[in-house]
Design a protein that fits this description.
This protein is mainly alpha-helical. Helices cover about 60% and strands about 0% of the residues. It folds into 2 domains: about 60 residues, no CATH class; about 80 residues. The protein is built from 8 helices and no strands. The chain is globular. It comes from Archangium gephyra.
């Protein structure tokens, strides 16, 4: 992607063309068929040289806003971040190194969160830090029971 092809041409049209080529009518349907797959891998599947993860993220957010499912989108992004950063699940030991890794994953999640949901995400982060999930916890979808308690489906 270093040659900049991901930013040339009609990005949105390219994304949806690739999604349709794979038999899906939306980027959300494509992503939901790949639960817990990190955003960069979704982008690579759609076009290794001309699709960026941030474009997939932006497209998923736009669809979530249209469907009034932004909270679900926010949980889905966390699932994908945790899967990327902790492929074996939540760390069993929270020493300085793993606390740093958790902070990085949660910080990235917050950065990817739309402004409308930032406060709720900050509260959820505080809960995760104060009462960490059990070791090995690995949410596979935005409908994970713990995630639903942290961020229930209420649109703000």
């Amino acid at each position: 992607m270093s040659d900049g092809r991901a930013w040339q041409g009609n990005i949105k049209a390219r994304l949806y063309e690739r999604v349709r080529e794979r038999g899906y009518d939306s980027l959300t349907a494509f992503a939901e068929a790949r639960p817990a797959v990190p955003l960069y891998l979704l982008a690579e599947e759609l076009g290794k040289d001309d699709v960026a993860a941030v474009q997939v993220l932006s497209g998923l957010l736009a669809e979530a806003e249209q469907r009034k499912q932004v909270t679900r989108f926010v949980r889905d992004v966390l699932v994908r971040e945790l899967s990327e950063n902790f492929p074996n699940g939540w760390p069993a030991i929270l020493d300085d190194a793993t606390r740093g890794e958790v902070a990085l994953a949660l910080g990235t999640w917050t950065a990817y969160t739309p402004e409308t949901h930032k406060e709720r995400v900050k509260q959820a982060r505080a809960v995760l830090r104060a009462t960490p999930p059990p070791p090995g916890w690995h949410p596979r979808s935005p409908d994970d029971e713990l995630l639903l308690t942290l961020l229930p489906d209420e649109e703000v």
